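mind reviewing this fold:
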Amino acid sequence: ERTETLKPFGVFEEEEGLQHRILIWGKLNNLVKEWIQEISESKNLPQSVIENIGGKIFTFGSYGLRLKLQEEVKDLRAAEEVFVPVIKLCFAGIEIDILFARLAPQTTPEDLDLRDESLLKNLDIRCIRSLNSCRVTDEILHLVPNIDNFRLTPRAIKLWAKHHNIFSNIFVSLVFPGLC
Protein backbone atom coordinates (compact mmCIF):
# COMPACT_ATOMS: atom_id res chain seq x y z
CA GLU A 1 0.00 0.00 0.00
CA ARG A 2 2.79 2.47 0.92
CA THR A 3 4.69 1.55 -2.23
CA GLU A 4 1.64 2.22 -4.40
CA THR A 5 1.16 5.59 -2.69
CA LEU A 6 4.71 6.68 -3.59
CA LYS A 7 4.79 5.36 -7.19
CA PRO A 8 3.05 8.40 -8.79
CA PHE A 9 5.80 10.64 -7.41
CA GLY A 10 8.57 8.91 -9.37
CA VAL A 11 10.65 7.84 -6.38
CA PHE A 12 11.30 4.37 -7.78
CA GLU A 13 13.67 3.46 -10.56
CA GLU A 14 12.01 2.04 -13.67
CA GLU A 15 12.58 -1.68 -14.30
CA GLU A 16 14.61 -0.84 -17.42
CA GLY A 17 16.95 1.39 -15.40
CA LEU A 18 17.35 -1.27 -12.73
CA GLN A 19 18.20 -3.92 -15.33
CA HIS A 20 20.71 -1.51 -16.89
CA ARG A 21 22.43 -1.05 -13.51
CA ILE A 22 22.58 -4.81 -12.98
CA LEU A 23 24.14 -5.25 -16.44
CA ILE A 24 26.72 -2.52 -15.73
CA TRP A 25 27.55 -4.04 -12.34
CA GLY A 26 28.20 -7.38 -14.06
CA LYS A 27 30.44 -5.74 -16.68
CA LEU A 28 32.44 -3.92 -14.00
CA ASN A 29 32.75 -7.10 -11.95
CA ASN A 30 34.18 -8.91 -14.99
CA LEU A 31 36.60 -6.05 -15.69
CA VAL A 32 37.88 -6.19 -12.11
CA LYS A 33 38.46 -9.94 -12.31
CA GLU A 34 40.26 -9.62 -15.67
CA TRP A 35 42.42 -6.79 -14.31
CA ILE A 36 43.40 -8.77 -11.20
CA GLN A 37 44.32 -11.75 -13.38
CA GLU A 38 46.44 -9.54 -15.65
CA ILE A 39 48.28 -8.08 -12.66
CA SER A 40 48.79 -11.60 -11.29
CA GLU A 41 50.27 -12.72 -14.62
CA SER A 42 52.63 -9.73 -14.64
CA LYS A 43 53.79 -10.80 -11.15
CA ASN A 44 54.52 -14.29 -12.54
CA LEU A 45 52.11 -16.07 -10.22
CA PRO A 46 51.47 -19.73 -11.05
CA GLN A 47 48.68 -20.34 -13.58
CA SER A 48 46.72 -22.37 -11.01
CA VAL A 49 46.64 -19.31 -8.73
CA ILE A 50 45.74 -16.94 -11.58
CA GLU A 51 42.78 -19.10 -12.64
CA ASN A 52 41.33 -19.06 -9.12
CA ILE A 53 42.24 -15.56 -8.05
CA GLY A 54 39.30 -13.35 -7.38
CA GLY A 55 38.00 -9.88 -7.14
CA LYS A 56 34.54 -8.58 -6.51
CA ILE A 57 32.58 -5.36 -6.62
CA PHE A 58 30.22 -4.77 -3.76
CA THR A 59 27.37 -2.29 -4.05
CA PHE A 60 27.08 0.67 -1.77
CA GLY A 61 43.56 1.78 -11.23
CA SER A 62 41.44 3.53 -13.77
CA TYR A 63 43.92 2.90 -16.59
CA GLY A 64 45.01 -0.44 -15.13
CA LEU A 65 41.38 -1.58 -15.16
CA ARG A 66 41.31 -0.64 -18.84
CA LEU A 67 38.29 1.55 -18.16
CA LYS A 68 39.61 4.26 -20.47
CA LEU A 69 39.34 1.73 -23.30
CA GLN A 70 35.67 1.06 -22.58
CA GLU A 71 33.36 3.20 -24.71
CA GLU A 72 30.76 3.28 -21.92
CA VAL A 73 33.11 5.16 -19.59
CA LYS A 74 32.89 8.96 -19.45
CA ASP A 75 34.20 11.54 -16.98
CA LEU A 76 36.81 9.27 -15.38
CA ARG A 77 38.73 10.92 -12.54
CA ALA A 78 40.73 9.88 -9.49
CA ALA A 79 40.14 11.57 -6.14
CA GLU A 80 43.62 11.43 -4.64
CA GLU A 81 43.46 13.85 -1.71
CA VAL A 82 40.89 11.88 0.28
CA PHE A 83 40.89 9.46 3.22
CA VAL A 84 39.89 6.63 0.90
CA PRO A 85 41.30 6.31 -2.62
CA VAL A 86 38.39 6.51 -5.04
CA ILE A 87 37.95 6.49 -8.78
CA LYS A 88 34.88 8.37 -9.95
CA LEU A 89 33.45 7.65 -13.37
CA CYS A 90 30.34 7.56 -15.45
CA PHE A 91 29.90 4.07 -16.95
CA ALA A 92 27.17 3.77 -19.59
CA GLY A 93 25.36 6.76 -18.05
CA ILE A 94 25.62 5.60 -14.43
CA GLU A 95 27.70 7.61 -11.94
CA ILE A 96 29.97 5.23 -10.01
CA ASP A 97 32.52 5.66 -7.22
CA ILE A 98 34.95 2.74 -7.01
CA LEU A 99 36.74 2.22 -3.69
CA PHE A 100 39.50 -0.33 -3.36
CA ALA A 101 40.53 -2.71 -0.60
CA ARG A 102 43.14 -5.44 -0.74
CA LEU A 103 42.11 -8.50 1.27
CA ALA A 104 44.41 -11.27 2.49
CA PRO A 105 42.71 -14.31 0.87
CA GLN A 106 44.04 -15.23 -2.57
CA THR A 107 40.56 -16.04 -3.80
CA THR A 108 37.34 -14.09 -3.48
CA PRO A 109 34.32 -16.32 -3.00
CA GLU A 110 31.04 -15.15 -4.54
CA ASP A 111 29.40 -15.30 -1.10
CA LEU A 112 32.06 -13.22 0.68
CA ASP A 113 30.52 -11.56 3.74
CA LEU A 114 32.21 -8.22 4.40
CA ARG A 115 30.74 -8.17 7.91
CA ASP A 116 33.27 -10.86 8.87
CA GLU A 117 35.63 -9.06 11.28
CA SER A 118 38.51 -11.41 10.44
CA LEU A 119 38.73 -9.75 7.00
CA LEU A 120 39.98 -6.58 8.70
CA LYS A 121 42.94 -8.32 10.30
CA ASN A 122 46.25 -6.88 9.06
CA LEU A 123 44.59 -4.39 6.70
CA ASP A 124 45.90 -0.86 6.49
CA ILE A 125 43.58 1.97 7.51
CA ARG A 126 42.75 2.97 3.91
CA CYS A 127 41.50 -0.53 3.11
CA ILE A 128 39.43 -0.61 6.30
CA ARG A 129 37.89 2.74 5.38
CA SER A 130 37.21 1.52 1.85
CA LEU A 131 35.28 -1.45 3.20
CA ASN A 132 33.41 0.57 5.80
CA SER A 133 30.47 1.78 3.67
CA CYS A 134 29.72 -1.71 2.39
CA ARG A 135 30.13 -3.21 5.86
CA VAL A 136 27.77 -0.67 7.43
CA THR A 137 25.15 -1.17 4.71
CA ASP A 138 25.36 -4.96 5.03
CA GLU A 139 25.11 -4.78 8.81
CA ILE A 140 22.09 -2.47 8.72
CA LEU A 141 20.30 -4.76 6.26
CA HIS A 142 21.19 -7.75 8.42
CA LEU A 143 19.76 -6.12 11.56
CA VAL A 144 16.59 -4.60 10.09
CA PRO A 145 13.56 -6.86 10.63
CA ASN A 146 11.70 -5.72 7.49
CA ILE A 147 14.07 -4.75 4.68
CA ASP A 148 11.31 -3.73 2.25
CA ASN A 149 9.84 -1.24 4.73
CA PHE A 150 13.30 0.01 5.60
CA ARG A 151 14.15 0.62 1.93
CA LEU A 152 10.86 2.41 1.41
CA THR A 153 11.50 4.84 4.28
CA PRO A 154 14.33 6.88 2.66
CA ARG A 155 12.23 7.27 -0.48
CA ALA A 156 9.36 8.71 1.54
CA ILE A 157 11.71 11.00 3.51
CA LYS A 158 13.42 12.14 0.31
CA LEU A 159 10.06 12.95 -1.30
CA TRP A 160 8.89 14.83 1.81
CA ALA A 161 12.18 16.78 2.00
CA LYS A 162 11.99 17.76 -1.69
CA HIS A 163 8.45 19.03 -1.26
CA HIS A 164 9.60 21.12 1.71
CA ASN A 165 12.72 22.39 -0.12
CA ILE A 166 15.12 20.91 2.42
CA PHE A 167 16.43 17.99 0.35
CA SER A 168 20.15 17.26 0.15
CA ASN A 169 21.78 14.11 -1.26
CA ILE A 170 24.46 14.40 1.41
CA PHE A 171 21.85 14.44 4.19
CA VAL A 172 20.04 11.40 2.81
CA SER A 173 23.28 9.53 2.18
CA LEU A 174 24.52 10.15 5.71
CA VAL A 175 21.25 9.10 7.28
CA PHE A 176 20.76 6.09 5.02
CA PRO A 177 24.21 5.08 3.70
CA GLY A 178 24.10 3.05 0.51
CA LEU A 179 20.32 2.76 0.41
CA CYS A 180 19.25 5.76 -1.64
